[in-house]
């Protein structure tokens, strides 16, 4: 008799990827929009680069690439710092949509840490 098992997916990590991808688009729009007061500033560039790095880290965690347990833990901690740092920069730049996107990414990070299956399960 075969076992019925739940699908194995990294839903929290994919939520981080989706939210930070939306954040990257918002950061890009804020970077090039001359009417918002932060266009072409260092902070706008910083937020764009940091949100792109959050996307990359989220994809690595979501795809369960060949990472050891401690390396996945380090990447998860760095991802948390990236989400919090990008959110703080978004707050200081008054980029509210980006701040909400980082809040959603934070929820995805918590789901990933608390509920997503490990690659060894």
TrEMBL record:
Q: Does the keyword Transmembrane apply?
A: yes
Q: Where are the transmembrane segments?
A: 12-32, 38-63, 70-90, 96-115
Keywords in alphabetical order: Membrane, Transmembrane, Transmembrane helix
Protein origin, superkingdom: Bacteria
Keyword field contains Transmembrane: yes
Name of the molecule in the record: DUF4064 domain-containing protein
**Which species is this UniProt entry from?**
Jiella sonneratiae
């Amino acid at each position: 008799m075969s076992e019925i098992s739940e699908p194995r997916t990294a839903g929290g990590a994919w939520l981080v990827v989706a939210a930070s991808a939306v954040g990257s688009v918002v950061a890009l729009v804020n970077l090039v929009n001359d009417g918002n007061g932060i266009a072409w500033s260092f902070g706008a560039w910083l937020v764009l680069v940091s949100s792109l790095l959050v996307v990359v880290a989220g994809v690595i965690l979501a795809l369960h690439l060949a990472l050891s347990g401690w390396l996945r833990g380090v990447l998860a901690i760095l991802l948390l710092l990236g989400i919090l740092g990008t959110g703080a920069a978004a707050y200081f730049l008054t980029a509210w949509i980006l701040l909400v996107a980082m809040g959603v990414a934070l929820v995805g990070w918590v789901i990933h840490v608390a509920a997503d299956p490990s690659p060894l399960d």
